[in-house]
Every structure is written in structure tokens, then in C-alpha cells.
Amino acid sequence: MKIAVLVKQVPGSESALPLNNYQNWIEESSVTFVMNPPDNYALEEALLIKERLDEGEVVIVSMGPDRVQKVIREGLAKGADRGIHIKESPEIVKDPLLIAKSFTTVLKEENFDLVLSGLQSDDTGMGQTGVLIGEMLGASTATLAIETRLEGDHIKVKRELEAGWFQWVQLPLPASISIQSGLNTPRYPSLKGIMGAKKKVIKCISSDLASKQAQTIDKIFIPQTSKQTEVIEADVDVAVSRIVEILKSEIKVF
Amino acid sequence: MDILVVLEDSQGSLHRLSKEAIVGAQELGGKVVALAIGKHCEQIASECLSFDLENVITVNHELVSTYNADGYSNIVKTIIEANSPKIIVTGHTYQTRDFMPRVSAALDIPFIPDIISFSEGSFVKQVLNAKLNATASFSTDQVILSFQSAAFTEENITPGSCSAKAFDVNLDSSIVRSKTEDPFQEDAGDVDLESAELLVSVGRGIEKEENIPMAFELAKVLGAEVSASRPVVDSGWIDSFRQVGSSGSNVAPKLYFSLGISGAIQHVVGMKGAKAILAINKDKDAPIFEIADYAVVGNVLEIVPKLTEALKNQ
Ligand SMILES: Cc1cc2nc3c(=O)[nH]c(=O)nc-3n(C[C@H](O)[C@H](O)[C@H](O)COP(=O)(O)OP(=O)(O)OC[C@H]3O[C@@H](n4cnc5c(N)ncnc54)[C@H](O)[C@@H]3O)c2cc1C
Ligand SMILES: Nc1ncnc2c1ncn2[C@@H]1O[C@H](COP(=O)(O)O)[C@@H](O)[C@H]1O
After folding, report:
1. pTM score > 0.90 for this model?
2. 10-residue block means of pLDDT along chain A (254 residues)?
């Protein structure tokens, strides 16, 4: 079983997000990057599938500037076998079709049985890359997987639907499946894993996509609010007494 | 046809987000045609006959009696190829996420998802976990757009009258390779969040499992129920039946007291109906503050224990 896991590096949820000079994306130099959270679950699922079968290969594929090698290494330290870095110019592409085409060229050559991705990236939030790639590879697809069961030449996926509903889907392989968070407990790299990762191979492939984008992000900005909000920014005791007053006299909870 | 609205069936009726998508399509302007697929397509179409649309196309086929991505993407693709709409519009639902990218890839039409508003060819969507907004645009002749929940209000549908007509598709069984089972619900647990008057809701800002009792103690003195955001449930700190949001419960309490929740849309759709929102977050730019009535900028771990004490003395 040959499994590709698409792992994106994104700004961490606590990172500063200063706008760049063109105001069309963030200024990356003061951003702290992490592995996109659902991709971490996708990686864990791939490692679990391989361990259960006791055979196969897990390959991390990441697209982005040189910095993304860090998340590839992190994945290798957790137990993935090798990495592929699709190298972009410093400015990341935001056209999902173009991104998917670039991935597809690389993935096609490798003939993966399974492509796992996260259901959505925290930065651009397109929520479509795994499915685009599935269609381009001629593979079957499913999204929002919260359980997977590999059974011979097909895989059963429990999909999350809206408002507490679920559905089982059975897909023939090869399949491209996007993973919803929470379906497993992602491991941390062991010291041995971290040491071992240094010897694993990351293949670098360059891509030049920036000029061909059919879909672009032209501007980013801080959302404006229309709601009247009382902001309470005070030391703890003052804040606490104001909250008590609100609960008592305005919301009247007691 | 200028615009094709792809409708969704929600247990035999028109999905709320489909109605909102119709409003979006009408605002984009031009000749709007709606498409209803599946075994309930006629019922769905009949709900649209009093709207200002060109007409409603219905497609039923035994291969799509239960929703599946293979069948739906093929049908939508066929309709687009036959009619060449400039814009394909839909609600940003889980089903849209599941099959619409297949249409996008098959026809090489860009898909701008989860749009909250638009003006003159540029579309606003949230990025970076809702902390920033972005305007996106496209340079192709055709585009697929999906609208976020509540981007439009269904009451604003322009009324009119139109008719429905069935369209026959040739779907080969070799196209539908996935086997879909019927949807089901899981045990809801013994907590009824949806009718709770007061909710204390815990987010990742609670930082660790050992801090969870802090929220339960506050809830106890308030007589509130405890709910949570997804990452807290994913980490196993709180039971999944307490999750609020698009994949959890939809709540409308008198008070939603959120502790360290950022305010991502998938959470907000489940709680924005609260009469009052009081939020504590250490980040003054947290998106939750955009919808909060009271925004307490501070550390949950410092404020909550003191607040619980103060309330005990009331
Ligand atoms: C298809 C889909 C479905 C989803 N369904 C749901 C759903 O049903 N429900 C749901 O909740 N989410 C859902 N999500 C996830 C959602 O997008 C967010 O990731 C999630 O809501 C974030 O949870 P959070 O705010 O608790 O965590 P974070 O985003 O990590 O935010 C933590 C917040 O706590 C603050 N904080 C940190 N420490 C402290 C402290 N000591 N004191 C005060 N504040 C602090 C931080 O400033 C931050 O704002 C879904 C996502 C997708 C893509
Ligand atoms: N540049 C990238 N590198 C690696 N994986 C990516 C990249 N872009 C998207 N993905 C994968 O596709 C998923 C969905 O991304 P998106 O469609 O951008 O929301 C992510 O969770 C990743 O698994």
C-alpha cells in the first residue's frame, strides 16, 4: 500500500498576521508556521494504515517555499518514509486548480493507492485540493472522513455530514480522501524518530506556477464589525466585577 | 442561462443554504436557472416555483437516489456543458465540498468557495482562520461560487413564477464507482444543548485537559450547561455531544459564555443565534469579538476561577 499524505505548512493559530506591503497576503517573515492541523490527522491515519497492514510506504508531499521542508521533516520524524517537496517561489499560489495540477503531475508518476489530505487549509481555506486531485488522477474521492477501514481493494470511509449525521461510503482504490480532524490521536515524534528522519530522503521538484493563476487573492484586510460590542480590557479584578454586573443586571441570569 | 444554481436536498426539502444561494444568484443578475437532483428533485423544485427564476431543471436517476459524489458531479457537469452558464452558484455545504471540486477539475472551471459577499467581480472570503478577509477574483469565462451560511437572507428571495422541467441524463453505472449507504445519526448523549438557557462554552484557549473542571465549576454556579468547540472535543477533553457548530449542535441560549474560542465560522454558525454573547479571549482581534456583545480581553485561566468565586458570593 503506497500512501501519499499532502501536508501544508500554515501560520499557527497564535501567530501574528501582519499584512505585506501589497496588502495581498501576509508578511511571512514574522509568522510562526505549523503543520496544517487536519493534515496532521491525515498523516496519523496513513501511519496507522501502514502499521495495521505491516507493509507499504507513507510519502509526505508538500508544496511551498523552502520553509516547508520543516513540516516534511516533522512528518518523517513521526514515521513517514520519505518526502517530496514541490518547490514554489516565495509567494504562495492561491489558485487551487493550478496547485492540484502541479500535485497531480507528481503523484501520477508515483502511482499511489491512497492520497490523504486535510479537509481544509487554515490559511487559504479552499477546502477542495484533495478532491480536485482525485478527479485529475481519475481516482475515487470522499471528504470529511472521520473513520477509514481498508478492506482489500477498497476502502470504507465514514463521512461526517451536517448537524450530527454520518454516512458510510465504499470507494475502490486508488482513492483520494480528505480527512476531518479528530478521527485519531496524532503522535509526537520520538527522539529516535527525529534522529532517523535526518537520513530520510526529501526529493525536491521545482514548479513555476505564479504566472498562470486563473484564480487570485487580490487584497486582504481586517474584517469590520457592525455589531455594538462592549470591550472590557482591564485587570482581572475589574474585569471580574464588570462580568458579574453584566450577568446580574443586563443578562439577568440570577 | 447566465447563472446555474445547484440546489440541495435536506431530508426532502430545499436546504436553507440553497435558498440563500438563490438570493446570491439573483443579486449577481442575469437569467438564473436552478437544478434539483435526486429522488426528491420534484419536491425541491416545487418549492422554487414561486421564485423569480427562468426555470428549474430536475434530474432523477436510479444511480443518484442516494447522494454520491460520482453521480452528482457527472450530472452537474452534463448540465453545465449543455447550457454554458457563466456562473455556477451553490451553498457552501458539506455536500458541495464533497462533489463540486470534482466538477471544477473535470471542466477546468475555478471554484471560489465559502464567499461572504461580493461586488463588481470580486468576491470576499475569510482566510487565516477568519482573522482576515480576502477579495478573490478569476480570469476565466466561467466560475463556480459557493456562499457561506448566512451570506444572504432567504427572506430576500425575489418572488416570481417559473416552471420545472425534467432532464434525462445518460448515467452509466461504470461512472458511479463508490457505494453510498444511507445517512444515520449517532447517540446524542443525555445533554440537550439546543434547549439550554445558559451555556458556558470551552475552546482551545482552556489550554489543557486539567483546566476543564474550571469551566464546569463556573457553569455550576450559573446553572448553565457546558458546551465546547471542536478541537476540545477532538482532544478528548469533552464529550462529542457537547460540540457546538456546523458538525455539532445549533444552539440559541439566552447567554453564550465563550471561554477561549476563536470564532471560526464553523463554530459561529452553531451559536450566533444566542441572545447574548459574552466572550473571553486573550487576543483582542479574535473573530469571536466581532459577534460578541461583551468582549473581555484577558486570560481565561486567570478570570474564570475568580469569577466563579465572586459569583458564589452573590
Ligand atoms: C468542515 C468543518 C467543520 C467544522 N466543524 C466545527 C464544529 O462543528 N464546531 C467547531 O467548534 N469547530 C468546527 N470546525 C473547526 C473550526 O474551523 C475551528 O478550527 C475551531 O472552531 C477552533 O476552535 P477554538 O476556537 O476552540 O480553537 P482555536 O482556533 O485554537 O482558538 C483558541 C482561542 O483561544 C484564545 N486563547 C488561547 N489561550 C487563551 C487563554 N489562556 N485565555 C483566553 N483566550 C485564550 C486564542 O486567542 C484563540 O482565539 C470545523 C472545521 C471545518 C473545516
Ligand atoms: N501547498 C500545499 N502543500 C501540501 N498540501 C496542500 C497544499 N495545499 C493544499 N494541500 C492539501 O490540501 C488540503 C486542503 O487544502 P485547501 O484546498 O487549500 O483548503 C490541505 O489540508 C492539504 O492536505
Report:
1. yes
2. 97 93 93 97 98 97 96 98 91 91 95 97 97 98 97 95 90 97 95 95 85 89 87 96 95 88
Q: How remote is the C-alpha of A28 from its chain's centroid?
A: 18
DSSP H helices, A11-128, are 37-53, 69-78, 96-110
- What pLDDT score was predicted for residue B163? 96
Give the CATH superfamily of A2-206: HUPs (3.40.50.620)
Cα(A132) to centroid(ligand 2), Å: 11
CB proximity list for A84: less than 8 A, separation 6 or greater: A59, A60, A61, A62, A106, A202, A203, A205
Q: Do the beta carbons of residue B301 and residue B214 sit within 8 Å? A: yes
DSSP letter for B78, please. Answer: H
> Of A95, A89, A94, A121, which Cα lies nearest the Cα of A25?
A94
Residue A209 CB contacts under 8 Å (≥ 6 apart), including other chains:
A88, A93, A95, A98, A99, A102
Cα–Cα dist B201/B249, whole Å: 12
CATH of span B3-175? 3.40.50.620
Instruction: With H, G, I as helix, E, B as strand and everything else as coil, classify residue B200.
Output: strand
What residue's CA is closest to ligand 2, atom 21? A118
Task: Give helix then strand counts, H and E, for chain B.
Answer: 9, 18
Distance of alpha carbon B194 from its chain centroid, rounded? 17
Spell out which residues line ligand 2, taking CB within 6 angstroms: A 6-8, 36, 38-39, 62-64, 96, 99, 117-118, 120-121, 124-130
Peptide bond into A174 cis (omega under 30): yes
Between the alpha carbon of residue A239 and those of residues A250, B148, B292, the distances in Å are 15, 35, 16
> CB neighbours (10 Å) of residue B70?
21
Which class does domain B193-312 fall in? alpha beta
Reading the block at residue B37, the C-alpha cell is 437532483
Residue B87 and residue B4 in contact, taking contact as beta carbons nearer than 8 Å? yes
Q: How far apart are CA B311 and CA B314, in angstroms?
A: 5
Q: Choose among B243, B193, B112, B151: nearest CA to A180.
A: B243
For B218, nearest residue in chain A (alpha carbons): A244
Neighbours of A203 (CB within 10 A): 12
CB of B207 shorter than 6 A to ligand 1: yes
CB B279 within 8 A of CB B286: yes
CB B2 within 8 A of CB B85: yes
* Residue B172 grid cell: 452509466
Sequence ranges of chain B with CATH classification 3.40.50.1220: 193-312
- Distance, in Å, from the CA atom of B19 to the CA atom of B159, rounded to the nearest integer, reads 12
